[in-house]
């Protein structure tokens, strides 16, 4: 198995490895003056980078200790020690983080903030994890619109967050056992991603924040081979190809809609900036070794949250999660996401 194959196979299992084993606190601050409209709802589609509790407890380590130890103080379905990207974008807009789709019938009073349809381990196509792909997530959303849960006015004052973090690629490699035709598959993934984005817009959402692919070669699942000392540049080249195609597609979509509805959140640049300067920023924790995860298995076969038959931990947790950028093999800590959010703020103001 080649380096890129190993990386994509392990890193983008995202929740699969964790699933089968797997905003900085405070008050919300309204930033809607940055927008040309006043958004009051957030709809979320994607995977574990945005999931806040949809993935079933029976499959996800995000519901196991030590996930959630920073926020809300116990496991709550987020693939981190605390808040994730969804929570920070909600804060930027000035609303509470939207409820997970699975709670739609139990938290009716919170429907006013939007809804989160993201499931860990999923992609634009079916992946190794049996969660709803992006097409199905959008179907859920469409059904709510058809059922009059959300009306045209709601949609015209809404923002969508869409994440795609690599699960399609890990699934492709796992099924084909090869990376030879990966470039062609990347094109297929981005084309399907574009169709999904256009569909979300077609349902009436006003603005759509589209996540580019993060540097897979810098995830702990890849940097483990160098004792978390350096990123794998060769692996990141494939990521750059994905992001280049996505940029071209989004530019075309904006021309078609004529209102610049789509905005790319460049996670690659945000991650790389933080990893290079170790998160150094006034008031921020400094990530001494940003490539090393806080929660790590005691051997390569064990993941964060795993225990043996007697309940003994098969992982260790760092003393201070705020000093770590990565929480586990593929997901940032709350502090890591906070740093990414700060790096993206200039872009978010363009929504």
Automatic annotation (TrEMBL):
SUPFAM superfamilies named in the record: SGNH hydrolase (SSF52266)
Organism this protein belongs to: Hevea brasiliensis (Para rubber tree)
Classification via InterPro entries: GDSL, SGNH_hydro_sf, SGNH_plant_lipase-like
Signal peptide (residue range): 1-25
Family indicated by similarity: Belongs to the 'GDSL' lipolytic enzyme family.
Superkingdom, taxonomy of origin: Eukaryota
Key words of the record: Hydrolase, Lipid degradation, Lipid metabolism, Signal
Name of the protein in question: GDSL esterase/lipase At5g03610-like
Pfam families attached to this UniProt entry: Lipase_GDSL (PF00657)
